[in-house]
Amino acid sequence: MYNDDIEYLNYLRSQNVNITTENILSSERTHIDPINPNLDWHDIGVQYAKNHVVIIDDFLLPEYTMRLRDFMLFFNKKEDFYDDYAAVNFHRNTPNKVWFSLLSDIVDEVKMRAYCLRTLSFERAWAFIYNNDSNGVNIHADAAAINLNFWVTPDECIIPAQGTNGLDIWKIYPPKGWNYSEYNRNAEKSAIYISQHDVEKVSIPYKFNRLIMFDSMYFHKTQSVHTKDGYENRRINYTFLYR
User: Fold this and answer.
1) In the chain, where the domains are located
2) What confidence tens digit (pLDDT) does each residue in 26-75 have?
3) What fold, for 3-242?
């Protein structure tokens, strides 16, 4: 059994929640490095310094990407429910909150490798699971320095079409006078503000095991989601914030 699975099951017991499958359980492991060792972190740093948006493909070794996907599929205590997606919040070192050691391995190892993260502190993370047809998370900005948005659903689950299933980023900050509710929860106001400015939009297509690292205060939204029928085909992404 993985160490983080033990933590996960203990959390479920503390919440009187039963897991619906045992397929995430496996042989015992200690601390791991899940990051793809072949990534060129110098080049990634140069790209981020230049563009403040960088795409990192094959981010994790695939078995760990699939473990993140399986966790979200089979963890049957979602916390936040929206019209067509649900979320689990992850809080490190917080009693009675969801966390497991694979998340620690990811947030710590990527911070050591990515120069732009070294002076920042990890704040929190979420995972989102979308209905097979979903509008996605609407336009917003996050109150942090850098956002890591990571996609863990296999490509064969996705219905490919232009402008769907990926991420749109507008390289513009909210006005300084806006408060958190205005730039994070008022999509209509944010869309009007974007439309009033000649701003570059970066549209990033979906791909399994793809991480997008970008400035959290840029406006961004999930493109509409369309996946094949069946619960196990649902699109899942993880978001990690560093401040």
Assistant:
1) 3-242
2) 334 446 899 999 999 999 999 999 999 999 999 999 999 999 999 999 88
3) Jelly Rolls (2.60.120)
